[in-house]
Amino acid sequence: MSQRSALDDSRKHRKKGRCLVCQKAGAHKRNLRRRDTPEKRELQNQRQKQQRVVLRSDPERVRARRERQKTYFDNNPQFREKKYTAQAAYRSRPEIKEQKKIYQRMLTYNLSDSRYLRILEFQKDCCYICEKEFGNSRATVPHVDHDHKCCAGRSSCGKCIRGLLCLKCNNMLGMVSDDAAILAKAIEYLGGRRVGEFEN
After folding, report:
1. Residue 169 pLDDT
2. Residue 3: per-residue pLDDT
3. What is the pTM of this model?
């Protein structure tokens, strides 16, 4: 085979996306990806950033692009199912679940992970009230308790956090609205008279 015919054959295979060595379709692109370098990735990231800047400066172009993506998503059930499956697999990973818990604690209670671990260590991995060891179930997992007089509702500023409780103890305080007088009356009731004594 002459050099000219070999060059033509090379161009023909490259147009088809075939590797010159194994003659398999798609192998040529995979070989190119293997030759990827940090410099190429950095250049690609810069191009993507430039594209995002251009898109943000043109709202109409952003709207048209979103419409195309939505249309493609609605008209391709296989792609939609594949995306849902990938998202579910990603969310089910243990490290992703732990990151989500850390993010939610910071967002809701303004409680950093380092401070949360210090509180957990101070309480010896137990509920502050009943002193039962924390676990992984919903009833035994640590619940952040805060003073509702400072921050009403579920969120907290971070300064009024009192400790970590189990689900039952946390619900108990919520049922009496953090009223110490009601709890003292309940203690007196548990250790005092019975209804039968008044009937005699």
Report:
1. 93
2. 46
3. 0.59
CB count within 10 Å of CB 179 equals 11
Residues 6+ away with beta carbon under 8 Å from 62: 55, 56
Residues with Cβ within 8 Å of 165's Cβ and at least 6 positions away in sequence, in order, are: 127, 128, 129, 142, 143, 145, 173
Map residue 18 onto helix, strand or coil.
strand
Question: What is the amino acid identity at position 4?
Answer: R
- Distance between CA 174 and CA 160 in Å, rounded? 15
Q: Are 17 and 25 in contact (CB under 8 A)?
A: yes
Spell out the residues 6+ positions from residue 17 whose beta carbon is closer than 8 angstroms to its own: 25, 26, 28, 29
Place of tokens 């009024």: 160
Q: What is the pLDDT of residue 158?
A: 87
Task: Show the domains of the chain with their CATH numbers.
Answer: 95-181 (3.40.1800)
Cα→Cα distances 114→26, 107, 192, Å: 48, 15, 44
The CA-atom distances, in angstroms, between 68 and each of 38, 49, 51, 57, 81 are: 32, 21, 17, 19, 18
Other Cβ atoms within 10 Å of 18 Cβ, number: 17
Along the chain (200 residues), what's the average pLDDT of each consecutive run of 10 residues? 49 49 53 66 85 82 88 91 92 91 92 93 93 88 91 87 93 90 88 63
Backbone torsion region of residue 36, taken as left when φ is above 0, otherwise alpha when ψ lies between -120 and 50, otherwise beta: beta
